[in-house]
Amino acid sequence: MRYILVLLISVNVLFAQRTVGLISSDPSASFDGYTLFAPISPNSNTYLIDNDGQVVNFWKNTMAPGQAVMLLEDGSLLRTGSPAVQAMGGGGAGGIIEKVAWNGTVAWKYDHYGATYRSHHDVEILPNGNILLLVWESHTVAEALAAGRLQSRLVENALWSERVIEVKPTGPTSGTVVWSWNSWDNLIQDVDPNKPNYGVVNENPDRIDINAGGNRSDWLHANSVRYNPERDEVMISIHNLHEVWIISRKSGKMVYRWGNPQNYKSGAVAQQRLWGQHDARWVPGNWNSVMIFNNGNGRPGGNASSVDVIELPVNTDGKYRRAGTAPYEPAQSSMLCPDALSSKYYGQNISGATMLPNGNTLTCLGPSGTFVEFTSDKREVWRYVNPVGQNNMIIQQGTVPRNNMVFKIYRYPKDYPAFAGKKLTPRGRIEDGPLHVREDASNSAYRASIDIAKSLLTITIEQAGQYNFVAYDLLGRDLGYVNMGECSAGTYVRDIPMGTFFLVRQER
User: Rg for the chain (alpha carbons), in Å?
Assistant: First the structure.
C-alpha cells in the first residue's frame, strides 16, 4: 500500500472501562484469523479486523444494509443491500446483491425486488459461482383463501411465501434465475376437501401446513440459507415456525425438518426445540451435522440463547429417518455453548455462530453487537463489541453502546485464499478514532498533488499499473474511493470527494 500524503494523529485518552471494541482475549486459546462484520446501520462500512481488534481492510457502503456479507475466496466481498422502497418492507428486507472487489470496486450488482417480491436476509455462494437468495413473494387474500388459508388467520392484506432462487451472474448488472423452490408450491391443508392441497398433515411432512404458525403476512420468515454440495441440498431457517428445513434440489421436495413438530402435527408443545433461531449451517467437515443459533426467545424457563448441534438421522439409503408419523429425529440437540443457559447470554433476534478450524465456536449476539468465542469446553476466550452505532457514528470508549446491531459474523483463517497477495497491515481500532495513515517511502511509481479548493487530483504516473485510492478528510475519516483503474505512464487529473486532504493507494 503506497501513500500520497500522510496524516499522523496521536490521541491519548484514559478510560475507566472498555465498553466497545476488544473487551478481552486469550491469544493462547483463541483462533487466530480475521473477523468480518457489517454493522446494521445505513452507509456503514464492512470491516475486517484481526484478533487484536485492529482493522486490516474495510469496504465503504453507500446504501442501507440488507443484512448478510461474506468474503469469497477470490478476495471479493459478497454483500446485500436494501433500496429505499416501501414494498415488502420488514426486518431483514434486502433487494440488492453486490460483489465488491478487495479495493472497493463493485464488480457485480443484481437487483431483485418489486411490488410483490423482494430478496432478504441471507445469501450463499455455490461451488459453480452462482448465488442462492431468499425471496419473499406476496399473495393476495383471495389467493390465500383459495389455497386453504383460514379467514381467521388472515389479519393483514396479504400472505407471503418463501422462494429460494439460484442466480447465475451474466453481466455487471444482470443475472439469470436457473433454479428455484417455492413454499407456495409445497402447501398442504386439512380444513377444506374442496380446495387444493387437501390431505393429512402428519402423513406429508414434506409439505407446509398453510394454517401453521402465526397470522401475520410474513408467517414463515426465512433468515438463513446454506448449501450442501455432497447431498445437493439447501437448508433454510424458518424463524416464525421455529424450524429448519432441508430441501432436495433434485426432487424439489422438503426432505427433512426439525425444531417444532407441531407444524406438521407430529408432536406436542413439549417437543419444541427451537425458538426464533438463526444461522442454521452444516458443521464444517461433517455434512451429517447441523449447528444452529437458537435465539431462545420464549424458551421455557426463560429467554436464553445457545448454539445447538443436531446429528441428522441419515439411513444407509441416504434418506432421513422418521418412524411412522413421529417427529423427525433427533429428540434432543447438544449444546456447544455457552456453559449454561442464562439471560446473560441472549440475543433476542438476528445473531449467529460458526465453528472455527480449531474446534472453537465464534458467536454473534446480534442485538448488542457482541462477538464471543468459546473453546470446545465452553470457555470464553475472546470478546468484542461493535463500536459502530446508529447513522454510522463511532461509539466512544466508556459509553454504553446502543444501536450497534450486527446480523452475523465470520472469521477466516490467515491462509484463506482471499488473503493471498494482500497487505493486511493493522490500521488502528475503530473506537480509537480515525484509522492510522502510515508513511511508505516507496512512492517512485507516481507523483501527486491535491487541489483542495477544486477537489482535484493531479497525478503523474511513472510506472504503469492499477491506481486506486481511498480518500480521507483532515480528521482521517474515510470519504470513499478514487478508482482510476489500469493506467499507463503519463499525467492524469481526476475529481476527488469534497473535503479530501489525503489519499491512500489501495493495491489489489
Answer: 25
pTM: 0.86
| 374-433 per-position pLDDT tens digit | 999 999 999 999 999 988 899 989 999 999 999 999 999 999 999 999 989 898 899 987
Compute φ and ψ for 392, nearest 5 degrees: 65, 25
Q: Are 228 and 243 a contacting pair, CB within 8 Å? A: no
CA-CA-CA-CA torsion sign (317, 273, 240, 389): negative
Q: Locate the domains of the chain by residue range.
A: 112-349, 446-505
Kindly list the distances between the CA atom of residue 79 and the CA atoms of 106, 216, 227, 249, 419, in Å, as whole numbers in the listed order. Answer: 10, 28, 17, 24, 18
Q: Is the bond preceding 434 in cis, omega lying within 30 degrees of 0?
A: no
- A 10 A CB-CB count for 170 gives 11
Alpha carbon 428 to its chain centroid, in Å, reads 24
CA dihedral defined by 337, 340, 343, 345, rounded to 10 degrees? Answer: -20
Whole-angstrom Cα distance, residue 291 to residue 307?
Answer: 7
Q: Compute the half-sphere exposure of residue 347: CA atoms within 13 Å on the CB side of its CA.
A: 29
Query: For the sheet containing 131-140, what is the strand order?
Result: 117-125, 131-140, 158-171, 174-182
DSSP 179: E
247: cell is 430441501
How many whole angstroms separate alpha carbon 382 and alpha carbon 391?
A: 27
Q: Which residue has the cell 389479519?
A: 155
The angle formed by the CA atoms of residues 371, 84 and 409, to the nearest 5 degrees, is 15
Report the alpha-carbon distance of residue 302 to residue 172 in Å, rounded.
49
* Residue of 381, 387, 353, 355 whose CA lies nearest to 369: 387
Cell of 223: 433468515
CB 77 within 8 A of CB 66: no
What is the rounded CA–CA span in Å between residue 503 and residue 238? 45
DSSP β-ladder status, 380-385 and 352-355: unpaired
Over residues 95-146, the pLDDT tens digits come to: 999 999 998 999 999 999 999 999 999 999 999 999 999 999 999 999 999 9
Torsion of the alpha carbons at 497, 503, 504 and 508, rounded to the nearest 10: 50
Alpha carbon of 94 to those of 59, 112, 259: distances in Å?
18, 8, 26
